[in-house]
């Protein structure tokens, strides 16, 4: 990238070379998709990889009013790179919901999605919460800093202080300014609210689902939660990790080989893969 601000663009190229169909990775709740770069260690170099990031990270923009609005926008971004299908989509957390919405949007445009892969995401309205939780600013900061409430103490932190803590810890988000962290927090809160209201459309295809197994809540989230919204097969894999660590190295070491095989299958590349094996 020629400019550091390019790292906050809506369309983020992770690998632009390769002769196969590109994989498009959709941002999680906070809007930043940098963590998907770890997939490059597991996906063959013949696959270009692009990430979609939330609007508003690099410059002020209105926040979307629904995941459907977001999906239409992101479908347009994807088609700038790949005008025609079939498409390969992946999303983690809120990005999984948005990826399914994009697949439905592309479907409505007459295009096919050959691979829809979701990392630990479920339709919120179909998960048995007594009350669907929307995170507070403090909740989001706990997630951003990967700490607990006791560590933060009672004193409110400024966003500048949060940025300094991230730099001291060598966080992947250490390059963000306090102002940018504030934007990430607001994007995450907005996406959590949109997830509560989101009712998925029906996708005419298969779903590849990866489920975290550590520190799961008492809700009923699982592969069956997606059944009303997927007409094809739901293939589910359990990943030994926490939800918030689905794109860290240890998790991707479990996800990567499965995803690589499914990419080959979806793009008709099984012969090449068998030769490599």
Provide the fold topology.
Blueprint: E1 11-15, E2 23-26, E3 49-52, H1 67-81, E4 87-92, H2 94-108, E5 113-119, H3 137-145, H4 149-152, H5 159-168, H6 178-197, E6 207-212, E7 234-239, H7 249-266, H8 270-276
Q: Would you mind describing this structure in some detail?
A:
The protein is of the alpha/beta class. The protein has one domain (4-128, 200-276): Rossmann fold. It is 35% helix and 14% strand. The chain contains eight helices and seven strands, in the order βββαβαβααααββαα. It has a seven-stranded mixed β-sheet, sandwiched between helices. Strand 4, helix 2 and strand 5 (113-119) form a beta-alpha-beta unit. Helix 1 (67-81) crosses helix 2 (94-108). The radius of gyration is 18 Å and the shape is globular. The model is unreliable at 270-277 (pLDDT under 50).
